[in-house]
Design a protein that fits this description.
The longest helix has 25 residues. By secondary structure, this protein is of the alpha+beta class.
């Protein structure tokens, strides 16, 4: 069953949210933001391991991360889990289900996370009345397709170092978009999740982090990462 939470609409509004510059179109007027705010549903924070939705749940909404981090994953016919993405504050997820009646992937909280749920039928209706909102969500859908293509390209890279470096460069850029440090950040996922996403074993991921530390490219303390040499990391990622 799809995870549902009691609504807590008074806690924060779209206009006040520090993530609105990322998940809302810049062109929205204040009265248009108010109209969007009225359809957004906000529940209690999800704890680590709680689900936003499961594969097979009916598709009703798309979601925005307000705080925390969400992991998307699919399970194949053999029962093997494949991580399909990591979503950070200001990012939208669940878009991949728009063309289907049900969610094809599951989404679970990697840590305590606050989520905005946006009922898609009401979003469609509002988007038809606010062209900038409609363009914004078309752009988000395009970005989701690009992310899928990037994952395919990532898994086609030859070396483990290239894959890990590409992931770190991506996280660096995403933190920079949130006006946070691009060189010092915490990875919300485990080494096992990183390995699953990148098509590598946990041992290989750990060896790559150790190697990048020895080379003076990174400083790593458990999940805390500091990029010491951005140019070399980007060169390794072919970014």
């Amino acid at each position: 069953m799809e995870a549902r939470c009691p609504h807590n609409r008074a806690a924060v509004s779209c206009g006040d949210c520090r993530m609105n510059a990322l998940c809302l179109p810049i062109a929205l007027e204040s009265h248009e933001i108010d109209r969007l705010d009225r359809i957004v549903e906000r529940g209690r924070p999800l704890q680590k391991g709680e689900y936003v939705y499961h594969a097979g749940d009916p598709f009703r909404s798309v979601y925005a991360v307000r705080s925390g981090a969400i992991k998307g994953y699919a399970v194949d016919d053999d029962g093997t889990e494949q991580v399909t993405g990591f979503y950070l504050p200001g990012e939208i997820f669940g878009i991949d289900a728009i063309g289907h009646a049900v969610h094809r992937n599951s989404a679970v909280a990697l840590e305590t996370s606050a989520i905005c749920e946006i009922p898609f039928a009401r979003l469609e209706e509002l988007s038809s009345q606010i062209p900038s909102l409609q363009r914004h969500f078309f752009a988000l859908m395009s970005r989701e397709i690009s992310n899928d293509q990037q994952l395919i390209a990532l898994l086609s890279k030859n070396s483990a170092e290239e894959r890990v470096a590409t992931l770190l460069v991506s996280f660096s850029a995403r933190h920079a978009r949130r006006k946070l440090s691009a060189t010092r950040f915490r990875l919300p996922m485990s080494r096992a999740d990183i390995g699953n996403y990148l098509g590598l074993t946990v041992e290989t991921v750990s060896r790559v982090f150790s190697r990048l530390q020895r080379q003076g490219i990174l400083a790593v303390d458990k999940r805390e990462v500091e990029i010491l040499d951005s140019d070399r990391l980007k060169a390794l990622a072919n970014a």
